[in-house]
Amino acid sequence: MKEKNTRHKKWKKRVIRLSLFIAIFSVVVIVFISPFTKYLIEKNDLKYLGREITMDWVYVNPFTGYIHFDDFKIYENKSDSVFFSADGITVNFAMLKLFTKTYEISSFAINNSKAKILKTKNKFNFSDILLKFSNQDTTENNKEPVRFNLLNVTLSNSELFYEELNSPIDYSFLRINFSSDGKYWNDDSVNGKLSLISGLGSGFLKANFLINTKSSDYTFEAVVQKFNLNIVKQYLVDLVGYGSLSGKLNANLKANGNLNSKQKVNGKGSVEINDFHFGKDSLNDFVSYEKLAVSFKQIAPAKKIFNIDTVKLVRPVFKYEKYDYLDNIQTMFGQNGSKIKAVENNPDEFNLIIIASNYIQTIFKNFFKSDYKINNLAIINANFTFNDFSLNEKFSASLYPLTIKADSVDVKKNLVNVYLNSGIKPYGLVSATLSIDPKTSKHFNLNYELRKIPVPLFNPYLVTYTSFPLNRGKIELVGNWQVRNDMIQSQNHLIIIDPRISERIRKKGARWLPLRFIMFFVRERGNVIDYEIPITGSLKNPNFNFKDAIIDAIKNIFIKPATTPYRFEVKNTEIKVEKSLSIAWQMRQTILNKEQKKFLKKISNFLHDNPKARITVHPTTFMEKEKEHILFYEAKKKYYLAWKKINQNLFTKNDSLAIEKMSSKDAAFIKFLDRKVNVHLVFTVQEKCNRLLGKSLVNREYGKMLALRNKVFMDFFEKEKTLKQVKMTSHKNEIPFKGFSYFEVNYVNDFPEYLTEANQDLNELNNRAPRAKYKKFRDREL
After folding, report:
1. Taking all residues of the chain, what is their mean pLDDT, rounded to a whole number?
2. How far are the Cα atoms of 48, 468, 641, 682 from residue 476, in angstroms, in the given order?
3. Is the distance from CB of 187 to CB of 171 less than 8 angstroms?
4. Range 369-385 burial, b when 16+ CB lie within 10 A, else e
């Protein structure tokens, strides 16, 4: 028994000694192998990777397969700048799997890492690493393929920075968190979860995905919240050299598909873009909107299914501007999109905007040939503006507030109804109803109306192409179209009420047409232009039938001469009423003309004869147009003084008249502006003149003009000793219906008998043929 206990104690001591030896050996191995591993990596980094690698310390446990690198850094090629860094990298090898000829990393984790990707032309700052590994011998042999498993991959609280050195593209992603179950050597599926925030502005993304590496099939779910689209702006600048783009993206998407076929996507969800702005710069938008919301139940292009629940665009603004050369869109993207084509045709150029637009086009290219449905379609409170700077003076008009709504748009329906209603700024209304076959655009009905549009709105065109503005007139246009198999049957009724030609404006470069002579033929006895203009033929080659216009012109040759006294009676009565109620000012006019003095004398005589009578004068100024004329005059004056080499003190009335007649499009004047301004991205004469003079000068001259108008008007009554009976209110800035600034005269207490009689005469004329037919148009409120 004693002997047995002795043997037991000996074996126990041996086990303890062996355990102690193994423990000490393990500690020694770990203690020495860890720094040795650090030494080997840092010594051979250039040999195997071509980059310098540093770390604070390494822990290696060869028995458990655990490895940890602390403060790990990889530097740029031949540089002391850091390419990649991580607070910690942890790898767990499954050591027992080595006996089954399987290499398995049971877990791989990177914590608090930072990576910076740089691109120069078509090369990245890691291209040398890829090249080094690709040059390794990969000759196939008959050995059994390596079994490699990479499991439980995590990336925590990391950052990624991306910059293209040949362009202004620079963005980043922060707080990147990624996890994946990994991949077994005999399994084709890889899954993952990703979350990150945008380092440029704001935004959060969260996504789950599953990819089959063999078939390239995938499924994913993604949620995006308030993601700042400034990232896209950089690709816009890279594409066209300038521009501004911003917005916030929200999305909730679920989809499956195949990476090798865009058409095989099958998804549902919603996309919303808020506070979107795109334009020349942050202060000049071409396109903007408050919200674009799209939700869809299923989009499957390969199955020809587009089941969309809602498409809603809220408060969109679209600005189209025409310049002397090209327009705002072509100026940005090149003539006929040449800049876009240049980037598309460059295989080394990556542009996110082009990639995204091409992807969307691919998805929706067969939309109208598919089984499509949109339950709700609406454009709400839109503002579509057209500015034409190619004329001698700016033309501007807007559709606002524009609303477009549609019934359920379903390809299975025979007809879909679309309703449009809008104001026209500065004046007018437009409405339309479109009933269209959703299966083809060659079959539709269209009814439209344009009401209360002032003819003087088009004075920039009339002055440029005829030299004659109009100071009165109202346009009404009503149409009804029926299109069947691309063939048109339509009636279009045009009425222009009381068009009246003003004095000719003589400017060099302005074309001349005998507009008064033309009006004799086109204007009817009731001082209207009233034509039915049928349009027939095909949509590609429509025929305009001017038979009604030609017949009316022939009638006017024989009828109008006999009615000349009647027409003069009407015109004189209208003028008597108008000029007793308002005084119109030509652009930059500050001196009363002979006719204005005559009518003011008539008003003053009435006040003198009626001491209790009073008038209140309400000045209304077309500020935008007046300032534009001041701007042109002062800029041309500066050019004229430099050209003639004369001093301001020697400036004469004849010089002023010469400047007035000079066109704002004068070639020598434009060259002068280009030399003086020489600012990139200035496309209009107006903007160049503003840069030359500064807004303060124009505002100062504008203020002087208003003060002078007030003075000459009030001085007239002061000389007539009736000033106490005249009260003038402050100036109101708006776009006048008649296209010119004016002083409106309101009579208090007493009303002039001659004006009462003139109104009665005009009403009587309006109630008699041929004017009675158009009384409802004249009476229609603005």
Report:
1. 84
2. 81, 21, 46, 37
3. no
4. ebebbbbbbebbbbbbb
- Distance (Å, whole) CA 68 – CA 55: 11
**How many whole angstroms separate alpha carbon 53 and alpha carbon 71?**
11
What are the backbone angles phi and psi of residue 291, rounded to the nearest 5°? -160, 135
Q: How many CB atoms are located within 10 Å of the residue 324 CB?
A: 12
DSSP bridge partners of 747: 615
Burial class for 653, CB neighbours closer than 10 Å (0-12, 13-18, 19+): exposed
What does the pLDDT look like over 48-76, one tens digit per residue? 888 899 999 998 888 788 999 999 999 99
Beta carbons within 10 angstroms of residue 99's beta carbon: 7
Amino acid found at 563 = T
Asked if 434 and 417 count as a contact pair (C-beta separation under 8 A), the reply is: yes
The residue ranges of every structural domain in the chain are: 18-135+146-187, 202-313+323-379, 586-750
Reading the block at residue 774, the tokens are 């158009």
- Strand intervals (E) in 94-203: 102-120, 123-124, 147-164, 170-183, 189-198
Compute the distance between CA of residue 321 and CA of residue 337 in angstroms, rounded to an integer.
16
- DSSP for 272-337 reads EEEEEEEEEETTEEEEEEEEEEEEEEEEEGGGTEEEEEEEEEES-EEEEEE-SSSBHHHHHH-GGG
Name residues whose C-beta falls within 8 Å of residue 424's C-beta, 6 or more positions apart in sequence.
Answer: 397, 398, 399, 400, 430, 450, 453
Q: Which pLDDT tens digit goes with each residue over 149-179?
A: 899 999 999 999 988 877 777 888 999 999 9
Rounded to the nearest 5 degrees, what angle is found at the Cα of 92, between the Cα atoms of 87 and 95? Answer: 155
pLDDT at 3 over 70: no
Closest CA to 590 of 708, 704, 701: 708
DSSP strand pairing (147-164 vs 189-198): unpaired
Strand spans (E) along 535-656: 535-538, 542-544, 582-585, 614-621
Task: Give the model's pLDDT for residue 560.
Answer: 52
Higher pLDDT, 763 or 138: 763
Helix (H, G, I), strand (E, B) or coil at 128: helix
Contact by Cβ (8 Å): 464, 394: no
- Of 721, 500, 456, 772, nearest to 611 by C-alpha is 721
d(CA 127, CA 174): 24
Closest C-alpha among 451, 435, 448 to residue 480:
448
Q: How far is CA 365 from CA 263, 268, 371, in A?
A: 10, 18, 13
> Which of 588, 581, 575 lies closest to 740, judged by CA?
588
What region, left, alpha or beta, does residue 380 occupy, with left being phi > 0 and alpha being psi -120 to 50 degrees?
beta
The 10s digit of each residue's pLDDT in 96-134 is: 777 777 888 999 999 999 999 988 877 888 888 888 776
